[in-house]
Structure formats: C-alpha cells, structure tokens
Amino acid sequence: MKTWVVLFLLLLAVGIAWGVARDLFSRPRGTIVGVVTAVDRGNALPKWYPPTSPRYTARLADGRLVTVAAKIPLNFPVGAAITLTELVTPWGQVWYRQRD
User: Fold this and answer.
1) In what helix (H) or strand (E) does residue 53 lie, and over which residues does it extend?
2) How far apart are alpha carbons 75 and 66 in whole angstroms?
3) Positive or negative: CA dihedral 67, 88, 22, 33
4) Which has the closest alpha carbon to 36: 76, 74, 8, 3?
5) Cβ–Cβ contacts within 10 Å for residue 15, how many?
6) How far is CA 70 from CA 8, 10, 48, 90, in A?
C-alpha cells in the first residue's frame, strides 16, 4: 500500500512540476489575432465539478482552432477579435495566452 501512495505522490509532483516548467520556461514566439468562437468561464466554485481555469477557443487566420489561456474570460464575446501571444516551450510545445 505504501508503494502505491509513494507512486501517486511522485506522479502528482511530476505533473505539477511539468505545468510550472511550461509557464516559467516558455518564450514568446509572436503575437497573432484570432476570432473568439467559444468562451469557457471555468468552474471555480461548485465542489462537485473539478476546478478549471477560464479559457477561450479562437480561430486563427489560417483556420486553426486553438485553446487560449484567459486572464479575464468575460471581456470578449463570441465573434470578437482577440490578440494572442504564441508561446513555445523548450521541448517544442506551442500554446497561446490572451494578450488583451
């Protein structure tokens, strides 16, 4: 039983370290403009749902749909233009953050 607890805690620590490393070591690659196609306000309050951060889904000029980490999810309605920062991690993962 102790082995499973240790393994669980180890995997939990690796997952948290991975997320923190993505935020700390990512570098901006550019600024792009997209159109908001969906707004997810996240679930911060109800205890019966897992907490999720707010995010947008945006369509870029080349037609790709990307998920965008949001600072303030109520600022942009569906169909509005949004400016995004494109970030890249040292291991090559590309992710997007709200710039406005």
Assistant:
1) none
2) 18
3) negative
4) 76
5) 10
6) 30, 29, 23, 22
